[in-house]
């Protein structure tokens, strides 16, 4: 952040009699204007007239970050006059916070902070830190970092924090010498606390706090049997009082923390109403088989869980977590061992799932992704970047899970395309707003029979039909891949010797016949219905055998016309086939489109020059990012 305004506005710029200036002198209008301007522009414009200066001065001084401005004389001089306007203050170890401590001889006070990030607390600056906390009783968000010397006494600062009656969030950043007594004092005093955060704490393995001996909650034992044999020294009344004292904490973040499993369980046992838990980047942490059940016993209402980048959590442990936390709504598990077992457990046991982030995970089966999209009706966001989904396998799963009659027909009606082709396994997540996924046609993993039944053109059409039903989609990020046929032989086409009964074999035969019939209709179906251009009404022979979604009219772009809410389109691995016709179609049918990313635009090519020129003239706000 640049240095806030330190000089007064020019007296030569006064409001004149024009109606325009009178309108722009209205504070509400001036404040609305600031939402579309950057900080530098606001700082310059505030010097235009006194009306603008008065309205924008609180905006300029609202947030003060740590930076070079603390070494500038004009900033330090203005800090004294405008400190009462600061609402968010972030300090580094080199910033002199003593300048913000109230002086009885001066009229200004830095007493309106709602967010404060402290520099590392030392014996030298502890007094000033305690003072600035006490003169801001309305603090709601506080971050502390204690110096690594365990011999220092930080009791003054600790008691100042415990007196904050409106504190909602408390964060300890890299506190390698955090004492049990310090945390106890703060937690007992801050009854309004809702979120507790640890970040980069590595001392738990060696410190007594890590073993749980000093901080364990004896009133909630590991099992019901142990609960009955809890120490008599902790009475029921004390336990109830302690439980009530921490009932307001609903969020616990332990990011980049090296600790023991018992520490997590002991902490969560103190917070029975916990709803959000983050174990992001935890290291040296090994989970036992009963960890999920023990965690659910202590915090049964967890709705938001972040286990991304954890090093030692197995897929089976994650699956057990999904089964133990049925109220889960958000799961962030990117860059972990999250795999097919976990995804299936999530689909079966967490019906209220709204957000799933499993980017850069491996081992997910295409069939499981199909079940996720089909069953999780509440899903609003799915980020599975670098997760390849083989569309023919999804189609096979869709037919496999659809009830069939003895005659081989679907037992339940299927929604049809414009040509009357039934689409089984419809995705039920109609509220999906953001989708990030890698769709592919992996020919080597398909049998010869599957390749004949589901050609690339049919798989592409099936996918586009499914996407077209996600009418609330705002962000679509996809990658399309086509794998050549290497190493596939006729042995894949042999019958399955494990078919147990003639009835099962008959059912399988009916299903295959149904797939072959429907996919054949999809393969020859008009790709662009009634809205397409002349080029789109004809099947492109060269493209018909490729799966790549080129987002061209000839590849079926018109099928996606229902996506009226689409704002961002991000493509990867997509052949550049977007010309002027496609861009004009997108602007017409996706009126909210503001960003297209992933296509290569060459300003030396006549077609690309035409497209970019048309966009600049007709839709200049659409960002084209290569």
From TrEMBL:
InterPro entries (UniProt xref): Leu-rich_rpt_Cys-con_subtyp, LRR_dom_sf
One biological process term in Gene Ontology: SCF-dependent proteasomal ubiquitin-dependent protein catabolic process
Domain of life where this protein originates: Eukaryota
Cellular component, GO annotation: SCF ubiquitin ligase complex
Span list, region Disordered: 484-510
Compositional bias segments (type: Acidic residues): 487-502
The name this protein goes by in its record: F-box domain-containing protein
């Amino acid at each position: 952040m640049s240095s806030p305004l330190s000089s007064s506005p020019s007296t030569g710029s006064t409001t004149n009699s024009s109606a325009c200036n009178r309108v722009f002198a209205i504070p509400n209008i001036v404040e609305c204007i600031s939402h579309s301007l950057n900080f530098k522009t606001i700082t310059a414009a505030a010097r235009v007239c006194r009306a603008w200066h008065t309205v924008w001065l609180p905006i300029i001084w609202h947030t003060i970050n740590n930076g070079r401005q603390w070494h500038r004389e004009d900033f330090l001089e203005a800090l004294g006059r405008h400190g009462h306007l600061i609402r968010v203050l972030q300090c580094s170890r080199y910033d002199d916070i003593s300048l913000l401590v109230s002086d009885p001889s001066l009229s200004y006070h830095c007493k309106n902070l709602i967010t404060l990030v402290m520099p590392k607390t030392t014996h030298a600056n502890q007094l000033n830190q305690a003072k600035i906390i006490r003169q801001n009783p309305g603090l709601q968000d506080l971050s502390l970092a204690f110096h690594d010397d365990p011999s220092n006494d930080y009791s003054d600062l600790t008691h100042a924090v415990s007196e904050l009656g409106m504190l909602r969030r408390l964060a300890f950043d890299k506190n390698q010498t955090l004492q049990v007594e310090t945390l106890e004092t703060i937690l007992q005093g801050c009854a309004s606390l809702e979120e507790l955060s640890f970040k980069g704490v590595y001392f738990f393995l060696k410190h007594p706090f890590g073993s749980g001996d000093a901080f364990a909650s004896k009133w909630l034992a590991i099992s019901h049997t142990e609960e009955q044999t809890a120490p008599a020294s902790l009475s029921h009344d004390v336990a109830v009082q302690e439980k009530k004292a921490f009932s307001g904490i609903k969020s616990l973040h332990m990011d980049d923390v090296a600790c023991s499993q018992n520490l997590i369980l002991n902490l969560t046992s103190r917070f029975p109403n916990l709803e959000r838990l983050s174990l992001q980047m935890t290291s040296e942490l090994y989970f036992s088989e009963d960890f999920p059940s023990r965690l659910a016993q202590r915090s049964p209402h967890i709705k938001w869980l972040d286990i991304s980048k954890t090093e030692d959590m197995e897929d089976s442990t994650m699956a057990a977590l999904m089964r133990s936390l049925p109220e889960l709504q958000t799961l962030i598990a990117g860059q972990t061992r999250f795999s097919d077992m976990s995804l299936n457990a999530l689909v079966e046991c967490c019906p209220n799932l709204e957000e799933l982030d499993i980017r850069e995970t491996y081992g997910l089966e295409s069939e499981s992704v199909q079940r996720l999209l089909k069953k999780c009706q509440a899903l609003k966001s799915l980020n599975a970047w670098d997760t390849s989904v083989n569309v023919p396998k999804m189609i096979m799963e869709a037919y496999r899970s659809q009830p069939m009659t003895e005659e081989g027909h679907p037992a339940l009606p299927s929604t049809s395309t414009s040509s009357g082709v039934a689409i089984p396994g419809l995705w039920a997540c109609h509220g999906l707003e953001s989708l990030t996924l890698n769709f592919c046609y992996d020919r080597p993993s398909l049998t010869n029979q599957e390749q004949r039944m589901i050609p690339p053109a049919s798989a592409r059409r099936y996918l586009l039909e499914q996407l077209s039903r996600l009418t609330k989609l705002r962000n679509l990020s996809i990658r399309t891949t086509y794998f050549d046929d290497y190493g596939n032989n006729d042995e894949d086409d042999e019958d399955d010797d494990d078919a147990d009964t003639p009835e099962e074999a008959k059912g399988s035969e009916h299903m295959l016949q149904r797939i072959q019939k429907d996919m054949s209709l999809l393969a020859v179906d008009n790709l662009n219905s009634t809205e397409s251009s002349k080029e789109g009404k004809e099947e492109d022979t060269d493209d018909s055998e490729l799966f790549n979604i080129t987002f061209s009219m000839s590849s079926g772009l018109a099928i996606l016309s229902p996506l009226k809410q689409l704002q961002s389109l991000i493509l990867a691995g997509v052949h550049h086939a977007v010309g002027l016709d496609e861009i004009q179609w997108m602007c017409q049918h996706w009126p909210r489109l503001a960003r297209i990313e992933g296509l290569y635009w060459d300003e030396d090519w006549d077609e690309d020059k035409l497209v970019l020129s048309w966009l600049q003239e007709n839709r200049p706000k659409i960002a084209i990012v290569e």
